[in-house]
Design goal:
This protein is α/β, with parallel strands linked by helices and 304 residues long. It has two domains: 212 residues, 3-Layer(aba) Sandwich (Rossmann fold), CATH 3.40.50; 62 residues, Alpha-Beta Plaits. It is built from ten helices and 14 strands. α3 crosses α4. The two termini are 35 Å apart. It binds adenosine-5'-diphosphate (ADP) and magnesium ion. The site of magnesium ion (MG) has 5 residues, from α1. Magnesium ion binds next to α1.
Length: 304
Amino acid sequence: MVVSVANLEKHYGKVRALDGVSLQVEPGTLFGLLGQNGAGKTTLIKILLGLIAPTAGSAKLLGEPVGRPDNRREVGYLPEDHRLPEYHTGPSLLDFYGALQGVPRAQRKARIPYLLELLGLKGREKLRVRGYSKGMKQRLGLAQALLHRPKVLFLDEPTDGVDPVGRKEIRELLLEEKRQGVTVFINSHLLGEVEQLCDRVAILRKGQLVLQGTVQELTQAKATWLVAFDSPAPENLTWQGGKLEPSERQGLLRLFLESAEPDAIDRFLAQVAANGLRLRHLERERGSLEDLYLALADRGGQAT
Ligand SMILES: Nc1ncnc2c1ncn2[C@@H]1O[C@H](COP(=O)(O)OP(=O)(O)O)[C@@H](O)[C@H]1O
Ligand SMILES: [Mg+2]
């Protein structure tokens, strides 16, 4: 396991930033930790990096208890709201940080131009960070995190403030890192982002994990379909095991089935045929992670 956390707690006075979190991240995964502001995401990353100590519970990184200096060399980190020294240019900043991290000069010389090109910063070598856009700063921050070829990348809100084109470039870069065997741990409050990118997702709410699984697992079990008939179905028809209502999509009805089991739709289709109707459209609705997330937030809201 790259990350292995059990019953982790972090208290700040009365605030339980983490309140009994357990999770594991396997090698080569693009793992997304989702949650609203204040959920505890940054706290978890900081514990994994050994920057703050947990109140209770255990946290391991690459099989070792967190905070071992030899582990840090395997890890790249893009902090949330990071500040890069403004007087540096891109290349001088990377060279400076690389030297601090102990990356040999020859490796810096080869890797810095490669990373600048990869992150779309080529041609801007003379520009000082002071003149960078937010998106350029994020990309330079990523280059910094990747400089020493880490096995594990921790990215805290990596696409915050980045325009859509920059976001796409960052996504492609992370997929490439994954192909090369790097494990990527991303904190984000941006659901669409995580949904598009991550293999596995965990949702953190007020210091507790409310859900984890693959994006597919978390979004598939929706029991609604969109349907249309060749000619209108009789108004008075009652459907066993479901109901039909108009949908917001032109010409399509929404079918609510009482069960998400595969044979529920077969029973509907049998009724269609038995009533002499013909289908023109049949499409399963897939829940988005966002639906799920909002539902969870609501449920929590009622409980407190
Ligand atoms: N150093 C600190 N002192 C006191 N409270 C903190 C500190 N760091 C974080 N917290 C609190 O812990 C909770 C989780 O914060 P954080 O991990 O930053 O959440 P997220 O990254 O998901 O937005 C919040 O309520 C925050 O106010
Ligand atoms: Mg945070």
